[in-house]
Amino acid sequence: MSVGLPTTSTSPVIQVIDLWMTFPGKTAAQPIHVLEDVHLQIREGEFVCIVGPSGCGKSTLLNIIGGFLKQSHGSAIVEGKPVNGPDPGRIFVFQENGVFPWLTVEDNIGFGLLNHPEAHRRKQVQHYTDMVGLTGFEKSYPRELSGGMRQRVEIARALAAEARVLYMDEPFGALDFLTRLKMRADLVRIWQEERKTIVFVTHDIEEAVQLADRVLVMSRRPATVKEEIIVDLPRPRDLDDSRYLSTRDRIFEVMGMDIKTGAETNV
Ligand SMILES: Nc1ncnc2c1ncn2[C@@H]1O[C@H](COP(=O)(O)OP(=O)(O)OP(=O)(O)O)[C@@H](O)[C@H]1O
Predict the structure, then answer these.
(1) Can you say how many angstroms the Cα of residue 157 is from the centroid of all Cα atoms in its chain?
(2) Is the minimum distance from the CB of 34 to ligand 1 under 6 angstroms?
(3) What is the ipTM of this complex?
(4) Which of 9, 84, 142, 176 is spaced 20 to 30 A from 25 at the CA atom?
(5) Residue 65: which CATH number?
(6) Same domain, 221 and 145
(7) pLDDT digit string, tens, across residues 219-247
């Protein structure tokens, strides 16, 4: 399925055309076909979540768009050019352990600005430290912070480095439930202030509906984009709103899961 842009959109910042990915298996006769015929477009400033069954290839797709893996076939075009390796303007935020343990919060956040004038660096660091709610912790080391605070450091570091695109792979996956809820709300606020393009991979369908402009639902492996669901709801989203709940239920349905029991259905 080809998924695209709302009709009012400008040209896409990310474009994936007929993308296939196969990993060599343990033997040449058993290659692992992961992605097949993936097409997608993401416009500047859009917040897109990718969901799908475990092991279907979500991280693989993100790693190809991010320049860490080379596809077997097809094109990944970002900011008008074929992806040919990572780019400092497009930053990954992973589940955990992305911060440098030997640097303080402020040095972590300012890490991408080492070549910039000191005054600019300090201003950026303070601005993003405040934005992610870490004011007062500038001199702390990561070991002195909670998991949620460490994720805030990572997000602030990406923003301070003036990333235009954020690739987020289960960034809140290691956090407890309440911290996840808080981080989601904060990420929405930050995205509304910054309007970066965000591509966010998650297992969590509720998280996707809470965050995204569009949710891309992938099929089982070899995966393609099975359906795109537009989440046209005002933010911050009311998790009891019937439209929120019906969007969530639709994604469960597309994924072939029974919302009440978690059992797979025959979709
Ligand atoms: N470098 C690799 N070499 C061989 N196989 C790989 C490699 N990377 C991923 N795979 C395989 O590709 C498939 C897709 O993996 P991927 O991590 O992209 O899925 P995912 O949807 O992100 O998974 P999850 O939801 O569990 O995080 C898996 O079967 C995995 O074992």
Answers:
(1) 15
(2) yes
(3) 0.97
(4) 84
(5) 3.40.50.300
(6) no
(7) 999 999 999 999 999 999 999 999 999 99
